[in-house]
Fold:
Amino acid sequence: MRKEDKNTIIELIATTVKEYGHFYLVDLTAMNAEATNALRRACFKADIKLMVVKNTLLQKAFDTLEEDFTPLYKTLKGSTAVMFCNTANAPAKLIKNVAKDGIPGLKAAYAEESFYIGAQQLDALVSIKSKNEVIADIIALLQSPAKNVISALQSGGNTIHGVLQTLSER
Structure:
């Protein structure tokens, strides 16, 4: 490969890392063509960008960025694919659903400005809540006390009305 081509690929990887907030490094070594194509289709449906890269080019792309990605360098061995996504837990859920016998295997992830190294981190990554899920939880928590007060007032009003009606009938 010519040096100009390598530099173009490095720039492409670096801009993609900047564009997406989260990415996962995945090992696709043991996957055949059919399984890889199925994974690509599943990624497309889940709005995840899958890119197979050379480890040295990925490392050079990391070096050009301001963020320090050195914790990920030791995982850059063998065949590596990068899953880019704007939702932190979407690739983890996809890997968990698609994986059979640990294939595809999670090497590492960069999600919510944190590093997750190793396949044992998959459950932690699945449990990360997206921005929309956190907003929904906060709204539910804010609405809960108001609903309790309204229901208490309504039930109390019915009780008082019932007591007054009973007294007036006597």
In short: The radius of gyration is 25 Å. The mean pLDDT is 82.
